[in-house]
Amino acid sequence: MGERKAVRLLIVDDEIGFADVLRKRMSRRGVDATPVTSGEEAVRLLRGSEFDVAIVDLKLEGMDGLEILKVFKLMAPDMPVLMLTGHGSEEARDACMRQGAAGYLSKPMEFDQLLETALRVAGRPREAS
Asked: How many Å from the N-terminal Cα to the C-terminal Cα in the chain?
């Protein structure tokens, strides 16, 4: 059996420290994570690259997470998008799910739960180690 390619993850979060820690921790688990801090940057990146899954913060300056989700669903309809928020509400969750989000997670959360969810929606459950 050939070597499996790393899961390619796009992280959209304006908390640069959080996104960078996430990138480092993901890469130690074999996930190729690319952090960006704005929706505009994420859309530009998605035009030229392919990702297996995206994690998008709901509250962002400029384009918010829901707008990004809508654009991603037009550009890459098969890419699962997980919404992440520190200020969640049922209305926001429902709106995201109606727009096609693969999941809705609240900060703070356990890293392992985030990793497991991202791999699961990408169709790549983590192998037992």
From this structure: 18
* 128 located within any domain: no
- Cβ(33)–Cβ(9) below 8 Å: yes
Domain with residue 86: its CATH number is 3.40.50.2300
Residue 82 belongs to what domain range?
7-121
Quickly state the pLDDT bin for 109 (edges 50, 70, 90).
confident
CA dihedral 47, 85, 23, 129 (to 10 degrees): -110
Is 81 a member of any domain? yes
- Cα–Cα dist 29/69, whole Å: 26
Average pLDDT, rounded, for the chain: 91
Task: Decide: helix, strand or coil at residue 126.
Answer: coil
Per-residue pLDDT at 1: 47
Q: What is the reported pTM?
A: 0.91
Distance of CA 44 to the CA centre of its chain: 16
d(CA 60, CA 82): 15
Q: Is residue 126 part of a domain?
A: no
Residue 127 within a domain? no
The domain total for the chain is 1
